Protein 1
Amino acid sequence: MSFEILPATKEDFKFFIPPLFKAMGLAHFVATLWPDNQTEQGQQRAIQRFMTEMDDHSGIRWIKAVDTTATEADDSRKIVGIAQWAVFEPDRTYREVPYYAPDDLWPNKLERDYAIHLWESYIQPRRKVLREDTLPVVNLQILCVWPEYRKRGAGGQLVDWGNRLADDLNAVCIVEASGMGQPLYEKFGYEVQELVGLKDDARFNRRMDGTIHRFMVRPRRKAI
Ligand SMILES: CC(C)(COP(=O)(O)OP(=O)(O)OC[C@H]1O[C@@H](n2cnc3c(N)ncnc32)[C@H](O)[C@@H]1OP(=O)(O)O)[C@@H](O)C(=O)NCCC(=O)NCCS
């Protein structure tokens, strides 16, 4: 089996959002931030949100790994995995897309507040780099390969695609890594800079013990 990496378009969302939510793992994180992710309505909301994000941020690049050996009869347009990279260039100003938190998505205000708190904790190091470090920065925001296609190199190809883009721009790469992703990123030149947990808040400190993600950085090709 071999994989080709191609740009993913808005047309592809309906094919890859359902398997993406199914395959992501990261159960606590995904269920808290996307509580409706297993419903059709929730997946439609996610598609809408990702489309808006693309309209608001010209640096968003979705790419897909496709199985080149799949036959015409295979479904889902042969997509076996997906990545979302975001490019932040120095000559642009980027509006940070606010976390999507409509009032009716959680059963009560406390659960909604917790989702916002988890997101605010998650995003801290990324925000710091984007505000304080020298751009360009390239951020791997989402990476997932469907379980039945893992351990065959697709994840590595999706990472390598973004690394090459970063090298062309002489950009720093950053990623909020899961435990599963960490060894792969290490193989591709990233190092753990920080273990990120929940910010202190007495209401939520017992909700989650330990690490939300490992903030990893790959230096730019040439010092500037
Ligand atoms: C992390 C993830 C994207 C990796 O995808 P993947 O397609 O399995 O990645 P690769 O196949 O390139 O690499 C995984 C391993 O398979 C090995 N591998 C690659 N090609 C192989 C092949 N042809 N045969 C055997 N092993 C192979 C790699 O060397 C690597 O080894 P390691 O686990 O010892 O480091 C995938 O596990 C995933 O989607 N996880 C859930 C979501 C997630 O956590 N995403 C990361 C969020 S930051």
Note: The helical segments are 13-23, 27-33, 40-56, 109-132, 154-169, 181-187.
Protein 2
Amino acid sequence: MQEPVIRITERPKPPRPEELNLRFSERAVKELEALFTHYPDKKSAMLPALWIAQREYGGHLTADAIAEVAYRLGRSYAEVEGVATFYTMYNKSPVGKYMLEVCTNLTCMICGAYRILEYLEQKLGIKLGETTPDGLFTLTEVECLNNCGDAPVMQVGDIYCRRLTPEKIDELIEQLRTGEEHSVVQLADAEVQIHLSERERETIEEALRRV
Ligand code: FES
């Protein structure tokens, strides 16, 4: 009889309560406190709290990061994990410093998105879903980036690269290789900042200066 094939997706083991290792920085804690005032209850701040965690944990949500959000929001690990795994913008495994997200939806596909993907795979020496050995680039495909008029399109952090050609890719990769910023972390930070008012940002800066 043929063996049944069972695929079990790897699920990181949640830490036990006594193993909880809180890693949010002072800034992160203050941001979270400010965010709580925007909502009727802590649970409603889950999405920005996960952005904070993604930034604080270096670009992806580990089991510890999810457990910390659950602890700070007073929710169960399973509940926070359910939200974190539903949305694709939260990374569940380590990713490169730059996420190259190529749109392969209809318009981009017709305009050569798969040729662009192949070019990137050859140039970086990785396959879709992989990260370069130097930890710089992760290559993924995404659904419509809502920029169909400029297809084919790729998102890198908060930058949209439009009307892609191999030449444009060469130029971009070169720029990113010498760049200082960490676009995955910066994107998470930008998302958090969007939720905070000017006044809240000033108050947080002021409080941190006093420490
Ligand atoms: S199909 Fe690629 S941006 Fe819309």
Note: The two ends are 68 Å apart (CA to CA).
